[in-house]
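Researcher: Can you fold this with 2-acetamido-2-deoxy-beta-D-glucopyranose in place?
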Amino acid sequence: MTDLRPCSAIIMLLGCAFAVLSSYTPSAEGGTFTFQNNCKFTVWPGLLPNGGMPPLMDGGFELGVGQKRTFDASDGWSGRFWGRTGCNFTGSTSPSSVACETGDCGGKLECSGLGAAPPATLAEFTLASSQSDNKDFYDVSLVDGYNIPIAISPTGNPSTKKYSTQHDASQAESAVDYDCGTAGCIADLNLNCPKELQLLSDTDQSSVIGCKSACEAFQSSEYCCTGSYANPNTCQASSYSKIFKKACPRAYSYAYDDNTSTFTCTGSEFSIIFCPTSLSEENGGGRLTDLTSMRMIIHWWKSCCIFSLVYVIVSIFST
Ligand SMILES: *[C@@H]1O[C@H](CO)[C@@H](O)[C@H](O)[C@H]1NC(C)=O
Ligand SMILES: *[C@@H]1O[C@H](CO)[C@@H](O)[C@H](O)[C@H]1NC(C)=O
């Protein structure tokens, strides 16, 4: 009778190689960002690295309705992302031109070192490095105003699974988990933006396309937390920042709002979702969960097949 054991060992070896390869991601170092546009309009993400950090995605790209884009960043990368709206780059040639209704960065698709024109909702990151105790830091900031809702959801850590179907940033603050929780803003703050802070569309004066920070609207050190207000004791939440906080309890509403705004996680994989309101549990949320369970299945498969391979090899040599 033919001995089939060497043959099955080879088949298993191939299976294991496939399992290991299929779960391989090029981002074992650094981090992975997935941008998802759940808005009913095109968003042009802008990306600004902090000083000394490499640019990502040339600083900007177009993300159509329902589109998703994933890319990697190096260890310890830090910087900010935002969503530009109402862009048309065809007519903009001079350095001072403006191409987007909100979040413009010098009139160009690729922001190359220029930040967002306020008001703009910002997603801010400092990825893990040995200096940060291997923790990722992230937050959504309305300190420079608000244009569209953005949520940040970590997806690379097993403990984040319970948040993936629960993108409800309006839940009570006490229930927010700042360890791997979802940061950001679900509410459309443009709908309840005080009149004196409203940014109106050039083409339609009845449409609010952004909500300025009180600092930008009134240019006072009290609202900007500058001068004698440049510390957390003198610069406190204002009636305006409280409106922002009420709409977006998981986002920075003013400069010293750290206690309820900064999130940490380890795992370095993040979804940045524009307009998470339409992120229903069956589509976006479900997909995050699918990803996590996919990873668990691959993990389980790897362990199982390595175990059986060892078993087959041992049984060959023990005969
Ligand atoms: C974009 O701008 C160009 C030049 O100003 C104009 O001709 C064109 O119609 C605009 N496109 C859209 C979609 O508004
Ligand atoms: C933030 O929390 C720390 C420690 O829990 C506390 O000392 C500080 O006063 C808080 N800051 C604000 C602005 O609430």
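Model: Folded with 2-acetamido-2-deoxy-beta-D-glucopyranose in place. The helical segments are 5-22, 161-164, 214-218, 221-224, 239-247, 281-317.
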